[in-house]
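Subject: Sanity check before I submit

Could someone independently write out the structure tokens for this chain? I want to compare against mine line by line before I put it in a report. The sequence has 395 residues.
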Amino acid sequence: MSSPKRILFLTSCPLVWGGSEELWAGAALRLRQRGLRVFTGRSETWGSGRRHPRWQQLREAGVGVNSFSVSGLGRAIPDAVRRFLPALQGPVLRLRSHILAAKIRLLRPALVVISQGQAYDGCFPVALPEVCQLARIPYALICQKAAEIHWPDDALRELYRQSYRGAAAVYFVSEHNRHTVNCQLAMAVPQAEVVRNPFMVRAPQPLPWPEKSPGIWRLACVARMWPLEKSQDVVLNVLALPKWRERPVEVSFFGEGPMSEGIQDMARWLNLSNVRFPGFTDPVEIWRTHHGLILPSRAEGLPLAQVEAMMCGRPVIVADAGGTAEVMEDGQHGFLANAPTVAAVDDALERAWQRRSEWPALGLAASQHIRTLFPTDPCEDFANRLQALMDRQPG
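---
Independent answer below. Compare away.
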């Protein structure tokens, strides 16, 4: 009787856990339930992260957590070389890649899945695709975000091209991301598919429309506190315009992150009285009390906050970034700003305001539309794709 197939998931996420982890982790759990041997690893150090509830869930399901790591000898040698013997950096970096390739071979996976938050994260702090090539193990890439503001350096483009060219499959979360990587690398990425991320709400139908008390229209900006990409600063500057100070519109900024204090200081400095900062909150609870999403991102894959708002029956006000425009129609499911600028977002918000009596109908249309674009269980769908990919591999 043959032994069960093995699969290794590697994540390049620098955070203990993030939204980019949900797709591969959900697929890992489903593959483990089917009897496969499933292993995981990180390209960043753990710290106290191994106690995070989502890692604990994987461990309790029988997934081999931290079965592969670039820490230890494989990472310590180049750090020492960089500091004291820079002339030997190249040879020692190659030695590190061979050491890590040997680690992967010991696990004997049929496939390695490299999850990247950004399009090229899998090459830092070590080029994981190159390591898989040295190990002669097929690998797949997940690209959770590609953006024009993250352009690859010329010195690294060939490494990135080889990484994508050598993949058995590449999974993008939006057509925009696929097109962006094709343009940046000046090549058609082979074996590329678009997959859907899992959504964190379980709303089989739109939520009841929230009441306005006392006549206030409540918008939610749901995102990590990271204005470099999520543009909370743009929302605050729009709200500082005289007309929005006078209108009964309130924006709650839901989320956490390393720039939270700065965003709140900006709101105070602008003397805004129509903003709130509740922190992290369950998405369903957000949409029980808020009438729409505002998220004019500068860079995106496909924001789950937008998907979840639409699932719950709320219109969205978003900027044309990543896949935002791919899952909504301007004026039908919400309002699209053509850029993450104050002028463009003000224009989209003004159009929304003039049609505020239609928001419940727009939210209902959004809820119906988004359900036609997403599988019922995106993680199950992704697990099926990975299992089919493993079945196609020789040996």
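---
OP: Matches mine. For the report I'm noting this point. Residues 217-371 form a domain with the Rossmann fold fold (CATH 3.40.50.2000).
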